[in-house]
Automatic annotation (TrEMBL):
EC number: 3.6.1.55
Endpoints of the signal sequence: none
Gene3D superfamilies in alphabetical order: Aldolase class I, Nucleoside Triphosphate Pyrophosphohydrolase
InterPro entries: Aldolase_TIM, Mutator_MutT, MutT-like, MutY_C, Nudix_hydrolase, NUDIX_hydrolase-like_dom_sf, NUDIX_hydrolase_CS, NUDIX_hydrolase_dom
Catalysed reactions, semicolon-separated: 8-oxo-dGTP + H2O = 8-oxo-dGMP + diphosphate + H(+); 8-oxo-GTP + H2O = 8-oxo-GMP + diphosphate + H(+)
The keyword Protease appears for this protein: no
Cofactor section: Mg(2+)
Location of the Nudix hydrolase domain: 4-129
GO biological process per UniProt: DNA repair; DNA replication; thiamine biosynthetic process
UniProt protein name: 8-oxo-dGTP diphosphatase
GO terms assigned for molecular function: 8-oxo-7,8-dihydrodeoxyguanosine triphosphate pyrophosphatase activity; 8-oxo-7,8-dihydroguanosine triphosphate pyrophosphatase activity; 8-oxo-dGDP phosphatase activity; 8-oxo-GDP phosphatase activity; metal ion binding
Family listed: Belongs to the Nudix hydrolase family.
Annotated positions binding Mg(2+): G38, E58
Length: 319
């Protein structure tokens, strides 16, 4: 039996580091929840037209510019909802609760997912994530590693995967602790890469997240970290993306989008295939493989969260 499918346009409005939430009115689906403003498409409307009309009707503002953030589908008991989410990067007017709904501005990290509709988990992750995810290269020298981290921080990078596959556990622990001590005060979030179980305990101890290699994602039935700590997955196809979302990962990297120096003979997905895979994914997806930070916008235009960059950031002078 075919289910009802409802398309909804949703806006993320930011001001002084805070995001606008509005409260669903009594008598509506999910009454009392805090949500991102927006509403259902009317017949014949394009997503951005629906967004502009909804924000005019609900908040009395005029949308000036938008950037697509994430589109995902959520099965509610009575119908499926597709949320088309946009960053509203400029608008005119002061948002008001024109339908009597309460308004509230909150920093992204203080929004409690439990206050939002059940469909909003991926949307909140997307709103909290930047559009560049740096992935470290292999290294063993702590001073060199910290110099590279400093350079990333100075360049505005705020999400880092610490990937050191050849280090023993003791050296990795010391290195991760040193990186976190530097990253925490500036709000850079760090994910520990690897399949080993001890990484979960280390992540909890240091206030870090975990990034699971594809083989580790396939092997687990549930994310290894509690909500609130980032849990990311490496994926290469639709099956892996679906599994990553099912086990509760917050975001994924999908590769290889372009041909890379490290795997020149591996066929690249290209942007069209990337977009098709992201379209079906229920979590934010970064493009990985041959990416440079300035391609974040292209990734966004193809439905992605942004780019995951290895060489281009960690080792920009390298080959
Ligand atoms: N606006 C909005 N809707 C959401 C969010 N999350 C989510 O699951 N939804 C669902 O998407 C649908 C949007 O419906 P809506 O009630 O806002 O639609 P609308 O503004 O056109 O209202 P109307 O139908 O009373 O005219 C609802 O089923 C709602 O529960 C969200 O963050 N914002
Ligand atoms: Mg609405």
């Amino acid at each position: 039996m075919s289910r009802d499918l409802v398309h909804v346009a949703v806006g993320v409005l930011r001001r002084a580091g805070e995001i606008l939430l509005t409260r669903r009115l009594a008598g509506t689906h999910l009454a009392g929840c805090w949500e991102f403003p927006g509403g259902k498409f009317e017949p014949g409307e394009m997503p951005e037209q629906a967004l502009a009309r909804e924000l005019r009707e609900e908040l009395g503002i005029e949308v000036v510019t938008t950037q697509s953030l994430i589109r995902h589908r959520h099965p509610y008991p009575t119908r499926d909802v597709v949320l088309h989410t946009y960053e509203v990067t400029a608008w005119q007017g002061e948002p008001l609760g024109l339908q009597g709904q309460a308004l509230r501005w909150l920093p992204a990290e203080r929004i409690d997912p439990a206050d939002l509709p059940p469909a909003d988990g991926p949307l909140l992750s997307a709103a909290r994530l930047p559009d560049v995810y740096a992935i470290s290269g292999d290294f063993s020298d702590q001073a060199d590693c910290l110099r590279r981290v400093e350079r990333l921080i100075a360049g505005g990078v705020r999400l880092l995967c610490l990937r050191c596959p050849d280090l023993d556990a003791g050296t990795y622990r010391a290195l991760a602790a040193a990186v976190l001590a530097r990253a925490r005060p500036v709000g850079m979030q760090v994910l520990l890469h690897g399949a080993a179980d001890w990484l979960t305990e280390l992540a909890a101890e240091l206030g870090a997240g975990r990034h699971l290699p594809a083989r580790a994602v396939a092997a687990v039935g549930q994310r290894p970290l509690p909500p609130g700590a980032w849990c990311a997955a490496s994926c290469h196809d639709a099956t892996e993306l679906a599994h990553a979302a099912r086990i509760g990962c917050d975001f994924a990297v999908l590769s290889p989008v372009a041909v890379t120096a490290s795997h020149p003979d591996r066929p690249a997905l290209g942007w069209a295939r990337f977009a098709a895979l992201v379209e079906g994914a229920a979590l934010p997806v970064f493009a990985l493989g041959g990416m440079q930070p300035q391609q974040a916008r292209a990734a966004r235009e193809h439905g992605g969260q942004g780019v995951a960059v290895m060489r281009g950031l960690w080792d920009p002078a390298g080959g």
